[in-house]
Amino acid sequence: MEPQRESRATMTDLIERVMDKGVVVKLDLVIGLAGIPLIGISLHAAIAAIETMLQYGVMEARDSQPRAFENHEAQWRQLALRPGEQVQVELYGSYQETEGIWHVWRPGRLLLTDQRLLLIRPLPREILFAAEVSAIAGVGRILRENVAGGRRDVTCLALEDGTLAALYTAEADVLEARLRERFGRLGRTVTELSAADVGSLGLGAAAAGQLWYRWLPGDGQAQWKSGWAVLTADELTWRADVGPGVLLRVPLTQIGNLAVERRELGSLGARDVLVVSHGAAGRPAEALFTGENVSDWPAAIRRVAYPRDGDGDA
User: Fold this and answer.
1) Helix count (H) and strand count (E) of the chain?
2) Phi and psi based region of residue 101 (left: phi greater than 0; alpha: psi -120 to 50; beta: remaining)
3) pLDDT per residue as tens digits for the range 41-65
4) pLDDT by residue (tens digit) across 198-233?
5) Which domains does the chain show, CATH number per domain?
6) Burial 122-153 (b: 16+ CB within 10 A, else e)
7) I need a labelling partner for 29 at 20 to 30 A (CA). Which of 56, 124, 211, 243 fits?
8) 16 and 23 Cβ atoms separated by less than 8 Å
């Protein structure tokens, strides 16, 4: 770059020249006191538009890295979308994935498009959750405590196929506002979900599932009732599908032995039964459960109650 002089240049001309041609600043400065040098400054700087920098082979790496990242972001986003599908909102979020009795929150990018609500993990690319906006029948926000003891708002969705889904994002207000905007454009009326509506999700639980519990009412006649067991960081609870709230609440610190035994249960036939021995000193008790995946519960309880043990055993 050859230096040029223009006595009538304006500020606009100066900025244009700097951006187009660039400017090189070289400064050598010595700061002293009473004739004694104390501080030395040597400054070399080049200022120009990025296109000009690239022409001279400067900052190529710093330019290519963000461009490659943006290209990658655009590619994975397009791979998840249908032709013509447009993203309306993009947020960081997570989805509660359930496998058997295990509940795991999986993080990713939450995309609300003009057609669907998606949660996508970028690398390796995987669609963790997908639902047509037109298939969402209910929306609610429930305050729940997670396994670590923190409290957060969880957005719950009821889908037309009867399933429930739980999503978390720090910008829940934005997500719900845009969802309701989409519902309005589709002319849909969506149900407001309450805490009772989403009880089966086991939000904030390490494990949850439907189990039969041997309940002993006040008349002393034991009966098997269907309901939901929920395991949190502090306790194991069970509530019936119909009737009052929580009928069993066992702190994990009071759980002793855990076993799965084959027993004859009358009209229910021979079933695997989870036996949970619990109670304070001098007041032992037994809670009996049966149902699908009952054999998974001892490992789940041990994993939460004794997290330091690698194999989950007490």
Assistant:
1) 5, 17
2) alpha
3) 888 777 878 777 777 777 777 766 7
4) 655 655 677 888 889 998 877 778 888 888 888 888
5) 11-58 (no CATH), 84-201 (2.30.29.30), 207-305 (2.30.29.30)
6) eeeeeebbebebeebbbbbbbebebbeeeeee
7) 56
8) no
